[in-house]
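Recap from last week: sequence in, structure out.
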Amino acid sequence: MFVKISRSLALLGLLFCLACETTGLTPAPELAAGEAALNVDGDNDTAPFLAAGNYEAGVRFSASQLGNYVGGELVRIQYYMANRPGSATLRIYEDSGADGPGNLLYSQGITSEIVANTWNEHTLDVPFTLGDKDLWITLVMNLTQGDQTLGCDPGPNVNGGDLLFDSADGLWESLLDRSNGEVNINWNLRAVVKL
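Predicted C-alpha cells:
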C-alpha cells in the first residue's frame, strides 16, 4: 500500500512540475483520397511527463462517435512520439468493460518502428471493418525512467481523449483526473479509416 501511494504522489508531483511545456503545434500526416481520421485530438503540442513505470495510454471512441465510420476499414494508426519508451505495444479494443476496454482485437509490438519527435504510422497487418461498438486505441509503454513519450494536443480534454492505465494502481482514469485537473490534453492517437 505504501509503495502505491508514494508512487502515485511522485507521479502527481512530476506531472505538476513538468506536465506539458509547449513546443509548437505539429500537424498529423496527410491522408490519401478516400481516407478519414477518426480522432478527438488536435495537432501535436508536446507530451506529458510520466514517472518511470508501466502505462497504457488510450483514446475511447463511443459508438455514437463512430457514426459515419461504421462499415469503413481501419487500416492504420497514427501517433506522435516524443521520446521512445523502453518498449511499446499498440492495441485496439472493441466495446467497453466496467472498468476499461473490452475485447482485444489487435496487439502489435511497435518499439522498433518508432521514430522519436515526429508523427508515426503503423499499418495493420489485416484491416478490419468498424462496427457500432465502442473502439479503443491504446499504446502500452514501459518507461525505465521518467520521460515524455506519447504526444498530446494543447487541450482541452475531450471525454475519452486522455485515458491512462497505470500498473501501479491497476486503474483506468483520465489524465485530467490523475493530475487533479492540472494536465488538460488529448493523446495524439488516431485511427485511419478507409471509407
